[in-house]
Write a structure and sequence with these properties.
The complex is a heterodimer of chains A (about 260) and B (about 350). Chain A has a single domain, classed as Transmembrane di-heme cytochromes, Chain C (Fumarate Reductase Cytochrome B subunit, Up-down Bundle), CATH 1.20.950.20. Chain A starts with 6 loop residues before the first helix and ends with a helix. Chain A is mostly helical and about 260 residues long. Chain A is globular, with a radius of gyration of 23 Å. Helix content of chain A is about 60%, strand content about 5%. Chain A has a 3-stranded antiparallel beta sheet. Chain B folds into 3 domains: about 220 residues, Rossmann fold; about 90 residues, Cytochrome-c3 hydrogenase, C-terminal domain (Cytochrome-c3 Hydrogenase, Chain A, domain 2, Irregular); about 35 residues. Chain B contains 14 helices and 11 strands. Chain B is elongated and about 105 Å long. The longest helix of chain B is centred in the C-terminal third of the chain and has 33 residues. In chain B, strands 2-1-3-7-9 form a 5-stranded parallel beta sheet, with helices on both faces. A two-stranded antiparallel ribbon of chain B has the order 4-8. In chain B, strands 5-6 form a two-stranded antiparallel ribbon. Classes of the chains: A mainly alpha (about 260), B alpha/beta (about 350). At the A-B interface, helix 3 and helix 8 of A face helix 11, strand 10 and helix 14 of B. Chain B: GO terms for molecular function: 3 iron, 4 sulfur cluster binding; 4 iron, 4 sulfur cluster binding; electron transfer activity; ferredoxin hydrogenase activity; hydrogenase (acceptor) activity; metal ion binding.
Chain lengths: ~260, ~350
């Protein structure tokens, strides 16, 4: 005796796909060259909001940690709100930073092949090692990458991925710690146990990791200019337009491989 | 033998019932209770008997005892004489030697599960550092803890390890929570804790027969739920951006925020800014000294008193994050410049090789 089934439901069974790697669009210019649409609009918007957020958060953050200017009106606290504004801006931009990053995480799944990264492959680490050798001017087998090379991807995992998570968790803990009973307080009070238990340890993490972002920015900007200088493929303009100029063979070859 | 209730004790000492009610009202306020809850305190004091208290001191400086005897609301004599019966204390017991040790034995024997154990100071894990009369500190503590109704850790040493546990911690000192896991321990950190907080905690246990509400670290919420920073009388200057740059500048004279002379108020949970000290007269920040964060875990290792620093995780090293950060960025920039120079040279060589 079989269980009655609804054929309509049977047919509707869908396949769950973890990540559909979407190939980057390209425009053929001539027999040799193509314009590859590497950075889609959400990626570029993310990049610039993120860059802006980090800049503002760093300036206001250093001010909060070590106020480098004082209010111009002396004696009375009534007339000024310098630290107050620095903190407000810091908090507001922190929310912007968080929402921005959330959208980018979504785009890891929705975006094209260059919007994602998979460090759980052996080839990722092998190629990252080749890239390190390349940057140390050693003999290497580094391929030409249209998107990010594995070492660059790794740096994003560490700084933009892990670094941001540490900054957000510790930051929201510090923001909400005066109201441990509020809903936001309850959401973040556990963070203290992860970062040393007391307010001071959490704060220390927040201060130290912040400078990691600045070191990352220096190296990141340099590497982008260097790539542009060596490859002449429009790396610098690509973060505004989205397009990189690539040899047809390489652009299509790399795509065929996947 | 029937013991007298707290009310009976008070009346026996020549106070009137009116005095007793006043005492209860002050007590309720100290415990952070609403005025309408005063009757609960009165009822408890009328019915409950005095609670025996054993006060043990280990690796401490007696500062907590000194703070305790400066309690003004409730006055320490009313706590000591009316509410509790302090059976054993190295500082306050009139008896000494065998007599006072006998008093301790008496409590352990006759009041198991009834007495409160107050502990001041941390315990060394190496017995060689603290053995009194042939009995190690650990043994003394564990024996007293066994039959205790509640254990109160007075001061930062017994709560977190404190100064004895500060780097390099020669005695391998640990807080009392390290040695007893099966008993509720209430932490009252501070170096020393505020007198009214110390008596308030005891009063709460006597009144309600249970612990006050504790936070995630085991401290009573009534006294440790706010940061000094959020209740600071100089907070307006912080938000305004007016800071004393040194202890003798115009800002310090005007009463500006002490953040830049190293105030630890933003990371310190205590009720100094609300309860204040010495009967509510003042507290360090009000008197012009930045908070040193004495009630926080590991405060002695959290950097020097008058600078704000960041601690490198899992170490005792504190650094100035801005200075070290700026140097690190400078080194990175120099590395980048060197790398760029090599890159440019290599590229030139390649052009040269190709005969361009």
């Amino acid at each position: 005796m079989s269980i009655p089934t609804n054929p309509k439901i049977e047919q509707k069974r869908t396949e769950v796909i973890w990540k559909r790697s979407r190939k980057a669009k390209h425009i053929e210019l001539n027999d040799h060259m193509v314009k590859v649409y590497v950075w889609e609009l959400p990626v570029r918007i993310f990049h610039w909001i993120n860059a802006f957020s980090i800049l503002v958060l760093m300036i206001t953050g250093v001010f909060i940690g070590r106020p480098f200017v004082s209010a111009s009106i002396q004696e009375e606290a009534y007339y000024s709100f310098l630290m107050g504004w620095a903190r407000y801006i810091h908090f507001f931009v922190a929310f912007l930073f968080t929402i921005n990053l959330a959208v980018r995480w979504y785009w890891v799944y929705k975006g094209n092949e260059h919007a994602t990264s998979n460090p759980f492959r052996l080839s990722f680490w092998k190629e990252a090692f080749e890239t390190i050798k390349y940057y140390l001017f050693m003999k290497n087998n580094k391929k030409h990458y249209i998107g990010h090379n594995p070492l660059a991807q790794l740096s994003y995992w560490i700084f933009i991925g892990l670094g941001s998570i540490i900054m957000m968790l510790t930051g929201y803990y510090l923001l909400f710690e005066p109201q441990p009973e509020s809903i936001y307080g309850k959401m973040f009070m556990w963070v203290a146990h992860l970062f040393g238990g007391d307010s001071y340890s959490v704060r220390s993490w927040h201060h130290l990791v912040a400078w990691g972002f600045i070191i990352f920015t220096v190296v990141h900007v340099y590497m982008a200019f260097r790539e542009d200088y060596l490859q002449r493929n429009g790396t610098m303009s690509s973060i505004f337009t989205g397009y990189k100029l690539e040899r047809k063979k390489e652009a299509l070859g790399e795509q065929d491989e996947k | 033998m029937k013991r007298k209730t707290i009310l009976e004790e008070v009346l026996d000492r020549g106070f009137t019932r009116r005095d007793f009610l006043k005492m209860c009202t002050a007590l309720a306020a100290t415990m952070g209770l609403d005025f309408s809850q005063t009757d609960q305190v009165v009822a408890a004091m009328e019915k409950n008997q005095r609670v025996p208290v054993i006060w043990l001191q280990f690796q401490d400086c007696t500062g907590c005892s000194e703070s305790f005897i400066r309690s003004t609301h409730p006055k320490v004599e009313s706590v000591l004489l009316n509410m509790i019966s302090l059976e054993y204390s190295e500082v306050l017991s009139a008896a000494s030697g065998h007599q006072v040790e006998a008093a301790l034995e008496h409590v352990l024997e006759h009041y198991p599960g009834e007495y409160i154990l107050a502990v001041e100071g941390s315990l060394p894990t190496d017995d060689a550092f603290l053995t009194v009369g042939g009995v190690s500190a650990k043994e003394t503590f564990l024996r007293a803890a066994k039959g205790a109704k509640a254990i109160i850790a007075y001061g930062s040493c017994s709560s977190w390890g404190g100064i004895p546990a500060a780097y390099p911690n020669p005695t391998k000192a640990k807080p009392i929570t390290h040695f007893v896991k099966d008993k509720p321990i209430i932490l009252v950190p501070g170096c020393p804790p505020i007198a009214e907080v110390m008596t308030g905690v005891i009063a709460h246990i006597i009144t309600f027969g249970k612990f006050p509400e504790l936070d995630h670290l085991g401290r009573p919420k009534a006294f440790y739920r706010h940061r000094i920073h959020d209740k600071c009388n100089r907070r307006a200057y912080f938000d305004a951006g007016l800071f004393a740059e040194s202890f003798d500048d115009e800002g310090a004279r005007q009463g500006y925020c002490l953040y830049k002379v190293g105030c630890k108020g933003p990371t310190t949970y205590n009720s100094c800014a609300e309860m204040r000290w010495n009967g509510g007269v003042s507290y360090p920040i009000q008197s012009g000294n930045p908070c040193i964060g004495c009630s926080e875990k590991g405060f002695w290792d959290n950097g020097p008193f008058f600078v704000r620093r960041a601690k490198i995780p899992a170490s005792q090293t504190t650094i100035n994050p801005e200075t070290v950060g700026a140097i690190a960025v400078g080194v990175t920039a120099a590395g980048v410049a060197a790398h760029a120079a090599v890159t440019a040279m290599k590229k030139k060589d390649e052009h040269h090789d190709r005969g361009e």
